[in-house]
Amino acid sequence: MDPQIAAVLVPLLGWAVHGSVLARRLASARRDPLTGLHTRAGWTARAEHCIRRHSAAAVLLVDLDHFKNLNDTHGHAAGDAALAATADRLRTWCGRHGTAGRLGGDEFVAVVQNLAAVDLGALIAALHRPLHYAGRSLPLAASVGICRLAELPVPMLTDALAAADAAMYAAKGRGRRGSRLSH
């Protein structure tokens, strides 16, 4: 190879490899390593895009019920399995109609383009299916708070999250294992 061509190509190749590595690191930083769901930053960008494009969008906040007890009784590996199972169930439910994320701990979030187009009962049933772990059937339960963006004076994600959070705590106050729409 001509030394002048090599002198130009070698640095370009180095920058291409470096750029590829950085792109992979950035993508992995926006995914939760345990569940594979979007982290708060990755989910927020997608959720804001969704609510700008879909006036019938809804935000859901999901919090596992009695998670600390499950973790303390059956161990952290069982807790991790419960988090991964919840993530899979939420991701599957969202499908092509939304995006799921993990806020942290045992809190999850989702945005769907149109709440009327998805089966909320199917999500509640999925989130309450027992987890089969290490030869045992462990109970899972979750409280879900929902905010339809159309019900807000100004459809902003921060307000939708606050309303979904209040609705989720109201669902927990009703004995858990359910869902509640914001009002």
Short description:
This protein has helices spanning 3-29, 40-53, 67-74, 76-94, 120-127, 157-173; strands spanning 58-64, 98-104, 107-112, 131-133, 136-138, 142-148, 179-181. The chain is α+β, with helices and mostly antiparallel strands and 183 residues long.
Q: What does this protein look like?
A:
The protein has 183 residues and is of the alpha+beta class. Helix content is 51%, strand content 20%. The chain has six helices and seven strands, in the order H-H-E-H-H-E-E-H-E-E-E-H-E. The chain has helices at residues 3-29, 40-53, 67-74, 76-94, 120-127, 157-173; strands spanning 58-64, 98-104, 107-112, 131-133, 136-138, 142-148, 179-181. A five-stranded mixed sheet has the order 2-3-1-6-7, with helices on both faces. A two-stranded antiparallel ribbon has the order 4-5. A hairpin with a 2-residue loop joins strand 2 (98-104) and strand 3 (107-112). Helix 3 (67-74) crosses helix 4. It is flat. Residues 18-28 have low confidence and may be disordered.
